[in-house]
Amino acid sequence: MSGTYLGMPAFPVAAGEAVRDTTLRGNLRHATHTIRDKRARAVAELDDWQQLRAAGKQIKDDVLRHLDHYLVRLEEAVTTAGGTVHWAADADEANRIVTDLVRATGETEVVKVKSMATQEIGLNDALAEAGITAYETDLAELIVQLGDDLPSHILVPAIHRNRSEIRDIFTDAMGRWGRPAPEGLSDSPAELAEAARLHLREKFLRAKVGISGANFMIAETGTLVVVESEGNGRMCLTLPETLISVVGIEKVLPSWQDLEVFLQLLPRSSTAERMNPYTSTWTGTTDEDGPRTFHLVLVDNGRTDTLADEVGRQALRCIRCSACLNVCPVYERAGGHAYGSAYPGPIGAILTPQLRGTDTALDASLPYASSLCGACYEVCPVAIDIPEVLVHLRERVVQGGEVTRAGNRVTLRPAKGHAAERAAMRAARWALDHPAALRAGQRLASRTRRFHPRRLPGPGKAWTDTRDVPAVPAESFRDWWQRTRGTGAAATGSGTGTGTGTGIESREGTK
Amino acid sequence: MRVALFVTCVNDTLYPDTGKAVVTLLERLGVTVDFPAAQTCCGQPQFNTGYRHETEPLVRRYAKAFEGYDYIVTPSGSCAAMVRDNYPRIGERARAEGRGEGLAAVAASVVPRTYELTEFLTDVLKVTDVGAYFPYPVTYHPTCHGLRMLGLGRRPQELLSHVKGLELVELPGAEECCGFGGTFAVKNAAVSAAMGADKARNITSTGARAVCTVDNSCLMHIGGTLARLGSEVRPVHLAEILASTEEQPYGGIR
């Protein structure tokens, strides 16, 4: 992925810093709660949402099962319609292909439609190295680019910025990239949008090369689909002479009919709209209308490897709606940058360790960036069981095992830094598989309970820094049962009375 | 009807009152409860941290301990969800790894018999008024696994609404996770604590005297956070509220 994410710390470190940033917390809380509530209302309008969701899952599963077939069909259809298809095994190859295609036009500037695939492969940096300037034209991507920042959300890349921060970025940076911000720019949304419109217009009118991604590709006709809100996409897709679309191979759909399902699922899940304002579709090239040259770069970059994993492959159903981000309590507090990739939030936590692997401390920490609350799974429009995949990837981290890397089966060793935990888990399992040992441990804890410190050392410190520890009761449940009901114990008959009154002191003790 | 209590390792070790409350409650409703001493832990901490293989002996132990019982009742939404959702997966994975059908069969044998307490009360015993008395304002936090994995719906609130003297106060942001998440609480302590602090603030804002859940593990995190913040709001497991009567009232709130 993008070199800009290289060397980032493990998730808990970055998230720990983000949590302390009160402005960021406020921005994220406001934005995610607003969009989450709107989404819930938009989804509730449809009686058949669960059927739509099941259909979305089924269509994507069918595509993934027969991906080879649909991709070849897509290539034939795109070629027949006048486009050229390129295949890129990884990010470097994709970047090289796009760079060469732009160079061949003789241009040194391109305009871009918002695209996750090009963020994933770090295309802008690769183009910059080749002396080509890529202008982001999506409003939020523009804010990120002008602020020399990284996107922190799939749908709203500048979600971590508030209006006054955006005003400052525009005032400070627009002049360096092109038309400066108007004098006396305020932070009203209308003025900010107008400033962006004026700044971008000259880029649209000048650009000879456009670069896009695609939300969907229709195998039967070779049609690409971009779904957007601002209209900048329509500009980039129609005005330039050359259009280059960079798309992940899993974005293919069999037919136009399948699109019907996703054009209902996607807008309601992502922007909470019944229908998004702009849906652009194009099929190859058309004489006298739109780009004269069209290239489609199909990107694998770890997708085939992901497909080889029976549990993890469901992540490839993702349509990048970001509903899971907006509802995630961890994302809301950690922010998007802590995830260290173009894909933040719950989907990033399962996608990145599969696309990139789990070799770095950051990537190995991502499957743990979740309390497994399941809110993401509940809202996912293609029913990706994100908690299931998270747990599956945790197993890959701590136990290692067979995975596919660049098409080859390799055996991963367990990640470093889990040795003590592994030993503790084994010891716990042994004790839990020997009730007598468990009982002995409980009794020891009970006997020493007056000496238990309020602040624990070692890993326990992470708990007691912000939380009291529960006081250990004088007697475990099993000892109480044994004493009052067990063999040899005086039968208590009704058994009432012993319960609710006695052990109350145990919790009182936490105060 | 043979009913066994699966008390869970957390309740057994740290919250025996919750186990006692389940016994008290069920016996008051005319159900004879057994506590098979071979039971220990459902294996959720191991499984959710990535140690699936360490979980397998505990799956077998669970099935063996509760063999022959018609109903296995547990005062934990999370542990019930572990059995219902993850035991079949563990069995499937063992089968896929060429280790036979055994574990899958073991899982299948316990899944339909395992009930979270409120499910057992409302679906099997078909009671919503259990004759309880708890004269305090209470707010209910639906814990994530009970809410989303088990789909408990309004069962707990339904039971609480019939408790004499109890005023059920709605919790703002009720369905947001409290931030416990098992080992998440220490692996991502900063985020967990931030989630806990927000939950505690919402709880305190209700003016309730007690916060109630169907999971003591989440309550340990919520209660520990409340206590550290100096709050007087008391964490109480639902079973302890339902066990409380006018004759034997809950003694934890004064």
TrEMBL record, chain A:
The keyword Iron applies. PROSITE patterns: 4FE4S_FER_1. It comes from Actinacidiphila glaucinigra. Transmembrane segments: none annotated. Keywords: 4Fe-4S, Electron transport, Iron, Iron-sulfur, Metal-binding, Repeat, Transport. Residues 393-483 form the Lactate utilization protein B C-terminal domain. PANTHER family: LACTATE UTILIZATION PROTEIN B (PTHR47153). One of its GO terms (molecular function) is 4 iron, 4 sulfur cluster binding. The lineage of its organism: Bacteria, Bacillati, Actinomycetota, Actinomycetes, Kitasatosporales. Residues 315-384 form the 4Fe-4S ferredoxin-type domain. Pfam families: Fer4_8 (PF13183), LUD_dom (PF02589), LutB_C (PF11870). InterPro entries: 4Fe4S_Fe-S-bd (IPR017896), 4Fe4S_Fe_S_CS (IPR017900), FTHF_cligase-like_sf (IPR024185), Helical_ferredxn (IPR009051), LUD_dom (IPR003741), LutB/LldF (IPR004452), LutB_C (IPR024569), NagB/RpiA_transferase-like (IPR037171). One of its GO terms (biological process) is lactate metabolic process. It comes from the Bacteria. Residues 486-511 are annotated as: Disordered. This is L-lactate dehydrogenase complex protein LldF. Residues 73-299 form the LUD domain.
TrEMBL record, chain B:
Residues 3-83, 138-222 form the Cysteine-rich domain. Pfam families: CCG. It comes from the Bacteria. It comes from Actinacidiphila glaucinigra. GO terms for molecular function: oxidoreductase activity. One of its GO terms (cellular component) is cytosol. InterPro entries: Cys_rich_dom. This is L-lactate dehydrogenase complex protein LldE.
